[in-house]
Write a structure and sequence with these properties.
The protein is of the alpha/beta class and 264 residues long. It contains ten helices and seven strands. The N and C termini lie far apart (66 Å). Belongs to the short-chain dehydrogenases/reductases (SDR) family. InterPro entries: NAD(P)-bd_dom_sf, SDR_fam.
Length: 264
């Protein structure tokens, strides 16, 4: 028999914004397929999520690997699971001047932040449009709105994600399927540790948003079918100001915000 249960697929769901999104979906009685790199972290998340009375399937996948997104899709197909909502949350950065950073790490970040996201979006948007229902939430960032010294590649990937989201949304505007772009600012997650960015001024001197608040903003915008949401008033103001500021000036300002704290 065809599986008619409703599922949300969430990458990067074992912690941070992805985990908080998973809790919101579970509260609204969505069954879940949660994806991450560490099985133990996924299992801990699943225990909490299952308390809402929903089914939670964990899949360990390393989306840094070129074929991992297709493999993930095929695993879900093999389980005969229909994905009603796709959330591409998994993402990572690397900190430092582009002259000094590790190229292999940056190519991995491009694979994760762009290639895996595009692959899953392509595969699932086709399914959703064909059956006339579905929603996609792709996590971009306000980083995609400004050039980002000390995180040049990360900012570039998030600029791609937001532009991509808006373009595909325009292409499918005559269908019931929606794509929503979530643009958080700096958020209190494990992102900065993984990016070796803990000594940056943005972390040491800035205010980090609560991932639960960011998830709520993204979830509500997705449910409403909005094209995008910038999470947090300060971030909305920053993006608005950035829209009328030359890119060269934005790069200088962002570089000062993100430089190491001990830099003179």
């Amino acid at each position: 028999m065809e599986n008619t249960k409703h599922f949300a697929l969430i990458t990067g769901a074992s912690s941070g914004i992805g985990y908080e999104l998973a809790k919101l979906f579970a509260k609204d009685h969505f069954n879940l397929v949660i994806v991450g790199r560490e099985e133990a972290s996924l299992q801990r998340a699943a225990v909490v999520l299952e308390e809402q009375g929903v089914e939670v399937i964990t899949i360990t996948a390393d989306l840094f690997e070129p074929n991992a997104a297709v493999d993930l899709y095929e695993q879900i197909q093999a389980k005969n699971i229909q994905i009603d909502v796709l959330v591409n949350d998994a993402g990572q950065g690397v900190y430092g001047k582009f002259l000094d950073t590790d190229l292999s790490k940056e190519l991995n970040i491009i694979q994760l932040n762009i290639s895996a996201l595009v692959t899953l979006t392509k595969l699932y948007v086709r399914e959703m449009v064909a059956r006339g229902t579905g929603k996609i939430l792709n996590v971009a960032s306000i980083a995609g709105k400004v050039p980002g010294p000390y995180q040049a590649v990360y900012h570039g990937t998030k600029a791609f994600v937001h532009s991509f989201n808006e373009a595909v949304r325009a292409e499918i505007k005559d269908t019931p399927v929606t794509i929503t772009s979530l643009l958080p600012g700096p958020t209190d997650t494990d992102f900065f540790r993984k990016a070796d960015m803990l000594d940056s001024k943005a972390v040491q001197e800035g205010e980090l948003a609560d991932p639960a608040d960011v998830a709520k903003d993204g979830y509500e915008a997705m449910i409403a079918g909005k094209d995008m949401v910038i999470s947090g008033f300060k971030n909305k103001f920053q993006v608005a100001m950035g829209n009328v500021t030359p890119d060269s000036m934005l790069a200088e300002q962002t570089g000062k915000q993100q430089e190491p704290v001990d830099k003179s």
